[in-house]
Design a protein that fits this description.
Layout: H1 12-56, E1 60-65, H2 72-83, E2 93-98, H3 105-113, E3 121-124, H4 132-135, E4 148-152, E5 158-163, E6 179-184, H5 191-203, E7 207-213, H6 216-225, E8 230-235, H7 236-239, H8 244-249, E9 252-257, H9 279-288, E10 297-300, H10 306-320, H11 323-331, E11 339-340, H12 341-352, H13 356-365
Parallel strand pairs: 1-2, 1-3, 6-7
Antiparallel strand pairs: 3-10, 4-10, 4-11, 5-8, 5-9
Helix pairs in contact: 9-13
Length: about 375
Amino acid sequence: MGIVSDRTAQSPGEAMTLKIACAVSWAVSWAVSWAVALAFATSIQAASAQDIERFYAGRKLSVMIGHQVGTGFDLYGRVLARHMGRFIPGNPTLVPENMIGAAGFAAANWTYNVAAKDGSVIAHFAHTALFEPLLGKGAGRFDAAKFTFIGNMDAVVGVCGVWDHAGITRFDELLTREILVGAAGAGTSGPLTQFATAVRRLLGAKLKVIQGYKGSAEIKLALARGELQGVCGIPISTLKTEWKDDWSSGRFKILLQLGRDRDPDLAGIPSVYDYAKTPEDRQVFDLIFGTQAIGRPFVAPPGLPAERAAALRAAFVAMTKDEKFLAEAQKLSLDVSPSTGESVQEFVTRIYASPKAVVDRAKDALRLD
């Protein structure tokens, strides 16, 4: 038996009216739900912002610099410490400290394994330390991709050069004549060690690496005293600051630039990429020299609360656009070509995904023995 209803059939007009009423009711319901959700999200964001401000208000935030006082890393770390606090909710005081050891590697290990994971510590050290677990002997006690990257202050361009007493004017002379070049720390993690070793193995330059110096300031003194003849991997930004007089006077002469892109200030100076003969050569060079794209990284420990990591990243971006910060950077002759923490995180992850054959060649090029 069929179902019997005492309701009379709807006319087409009545059916349409009912459909419109239902649609309007649904739209109103959806709009109200969205408004409630938006209001809830906004209240959560406001509460989160208040939590961040309460955490940082009156707090001292440590900026751990993994290099000697007076080096380029020290200058960048200290200028950040003077300005970034203005853009963090609660306006904490940023206090720079120096942890010298293994060309920034000690600071990298400390930041990952020891430093507080609450957003109260930022570290600044050589980018090469980040890739030691990939390209070195595995002494890195960290997973580089798990650092909380706050941002990168500058894309570094390193150079190889000599002091005037070396009597060398062209890079090709180093293919037949050995010189002593200085490097900070020990092991393979430092940029001066890595780049000098790579130029020796990949290009055939006769560079004997002398390690153990505390930083570029000590290396410059050793060059002036005649203990060393050259250095390989020193950033252009360092030459524009601490080594400015030595470069402009001709006491220090640049022979080779190590950046993927040619520096406009180094017209006529050959690039390491001029010596790449195959596509794989270029990939190897990218793995060793191309990482200078994040040459002035600022990182925090892994596992930071997401809202504090976001606040620090936002503060870094705001600082790099600030007129007062940029004016001081210009006064100190510091190059500023920043990149966000998110882009640095992606860059590091991509480098660690490099083909094994390329990684193996790069590791071989960085061997000290």
